[in-house]
Amino acid sequence: MSLINQVLKDLEQRREGPVSSADGTILTTPRYTVARGSSPFVLYVFAVVLIILSLLIGFLVWDRIIERGGPMVMTIGGRPAPAPTVTFRPSDAPPASPSSAPPAENAIVGLVKPGADDGVDNAASKKKVEHEPTAQTRSAPEKTATAKKTAPAPKTVETDETETSHAGSMEKQRRPLTPQQRTDRFFRKAYSALRKGQLQQSEQFFRQALAIMPGHVKSREMLAGLYIKSGRYVEAGQLLKQGVALNPAYSLFRKLYARVLLEQDALDQAVAVLERNLPQINQDVDYYALLAALYQRQGRHENAVALYQNMLKQNSMVGIWWIGMGISLEKLGDTEAARQAYEKARASGTLAAQMIQYTDNRLAALKEIGYPDE
Prior knowledge:
Layout: H1 3-16, H2 39-68, E1 75-76, E2 79-80, H3 119-131, H4 135-150, E3 159-166, E4 169-176, H5 179-195, H6 199-212, H7 217-229, H8 233-246, H9 251-263, H10 267-275, H11 285-298, H12 301-314, H13 319-331, H14 335-347, H15 353-368
Helix pairs in contact: 5-6, 6-7, 7-8, 8-9, 9-10, 10-11, 11-12, 12-13, 13-14, 14-15
């Protein structure tokens, strides 16, 4: 027994005195004893067991909270701390708008300490947090989208709007019109103005169309008609001369040009224009009728008769062609053939009243000059 225990024993004996037991022995156990060497070890074991039990209870409570979906809220100074929200979004998804709230299943509130049985879930959560873009990354696409909205669209004089689809979104693109499209647009404007009687505006639009495409046939044809109708033969002649040079196979330009030259008393030049690039007679028989009439005015009646005969082979019921051939036959001195031509013109039933009167007069004149009666 140690010295301290002995001293304590003596003090105890002096304070209380010896007490006899039932068998006559004296109790020597002091009231206050010092713990032996094994007592601290027991306390340590008890503390460790208590800590382990506390941890187990804490983990059980935490697992129950996770299963129920309830968040762990940390408190600061007795008040709940604001829960940071981390939203998972795929890297190729468009940035979320500031007003849109993240879905509840993607919000992670508080701090999670992984346990032994939830390693997979927590590993997935860590992967989500690692792939979460920062606020600066999210703000960059938003600034870009705002810049696109505020940037002014490029201006073009004449454009055509089309819609194209890129990655599921519709975009409007402005493409410049082709020369053909611009010419057609001016032609439509000119034709609309012409129908409304706006001659000056129509002429301006036709000129603009030809300035873009000089080979636009309809614009040149309509503009030449305006010039001829208003008596502007010089301008019409220049316009049609260019048209003949640009479109040699287009017979209408040559016919109009020949008529303009006739108005300017240029008969020989008009005939020369018609004699070049003759079309097929079955394609443009009126072309040959004009040329035959000009041959008559030149006194070339044999050429005129040949043309009338070819035309009447195409259509023998055109009375005016019979009259034209009768006139040339009279000039050639063939009165019998002329009389027959006039009679066929009269019988065609296609003559106007004035031409019927002319035919009757020619028949009466030929009868007076004494062709033999049948």
